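Q: Hi! First time doing this. I have a protein sequence and I read that you can turn it into a structure. Is that right? Here it is:
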Amino acid sequence: MITCGTDWAEDHHDMALADESGKLLAKRRIGDAAFQVKGVGLDSREARAVLAAAPEPAAAARLSAPRLRSVLRKTGRQRYIDSWVERLRPIFAAEQLHQLPAVEQAMGRQTLALVSQLDAACRAADDLAEAAAAAFAAHPDAEILISFPGIGPVTGARVLAEIGDDRARFRDARGLKAYAGSAPVTIASGKSLVVRNRKVKNQRLARPATSGFSGSCDTSVGGLGGWRGATRRSRIGSELS
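A: Yes, that's right. Below is the predicted 3D structure, encoded as structure tokens:
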């Protein structure tokens, strides 16, 4: 009797075959490298289209370059199609651990059902995002919020929903910074001085604010310098403590 064991992780899973005595017969790590690209995941249009066209490993290995280009173009992608094809085809054609043909076929049908559900969820999310962006654009504070690097219509709508448009809600800028979690916490005891990030905060507001700060680091020399200075001060404070 042969036993198969699987150890799952976020970006890969390990599979092992052992006999009745527990002797290891084979071991293979299977990665999810096909769509591990910045900004692209299994919920992307490209990944869903490829999974729908080839829900089984054998079907993916048979995908020709023209067929894969056609699938990617139907998703609306116009750039880097050849680069995608050159990267995906070797991954699909690589040697993989297989189930029995009937089992793989059944798992392929299950994959198609899951992709259909994922398609419906992604379409609903896109519709909701469009509605939120349209409502946000009609607000008089929209132009102010989207002027910050990294803040777009959807993240701007979230920031506006969390902060509100009542100018008297926060007494000063420090109150808003504390509410958003961007104001540090200073702990002083004797000769020890430690400055730490604020953990108690509005998490729904902190996430888009963090993405906005990351955007300012990418597009602004001053923003990047501020980030490096804050990191340096935090390291010095930790060493002094």
